[in-house]
From TrEMBL:
Pfam family, one: His_Phos_1
Organism, as annotated: Granulicella mallensis (strain ATCC BAA-1857 / DSM 23137 / MP5ACTX8)
Record-given protein name: Phosphoglycerate mutase
UniProt GO MF annotations: protein histidine phosphatase activity
Highest taxon in the source lineage: Bacteria
Amino acid sequence: MPEEKTELWLVRHGETEWSLDGRHTSWTDIPLTDHGRQRAVELREFLAGKKFAAVFVSPRQRARETCEIAGYGDVAVIEDGLQEWNYGESEGKTTAQMRAIHGPNWSVWTDPIIGGESVEAVGERADEVIAKALAAAPQGGAVALFAHAHILRILAARWIGLPAVGGKLFGLGTGSVSVLGHERETRVISRWNRGFESE
């Protein structure tokens, strides 16, 4: 079956001022830092010559900028489903700040997101993106998804049949590359969180 020949390459955008500070960043449209742009250059070197059946990118500038620097801006299709989780009232705040308001056990993964999306709703978006990615490669091949930490973590969880909240088990650094694929007919995580910090 063609799906068994399909890989999803997940590329998290490079560093921003807010990711550096640990602030929740969903729809706030902020650019990469200089370090984030350098990471995107390293992504371009790593992906040099890699052919994708399709490339999808979040509409947020940090993802689009990463995609462009990495060399795929001219073929990428904007995919609204790849927008980061809408964090509602926690947008722009750190976990520590939210815990000062809601208690020491607050987590975006387990507490209601006031004014934002539930983790299940993000999971539904992830399922739709997976379906679109598979449809874009009917004969198999690699599909690139340039997006954000939480949506990509949730997408990975859904790929292997976990509930959306299972994304909390997968750490994902800025400017990283991960690959979802198959072992025979079973969906697997082939590679995860390939970073460039120590290279």
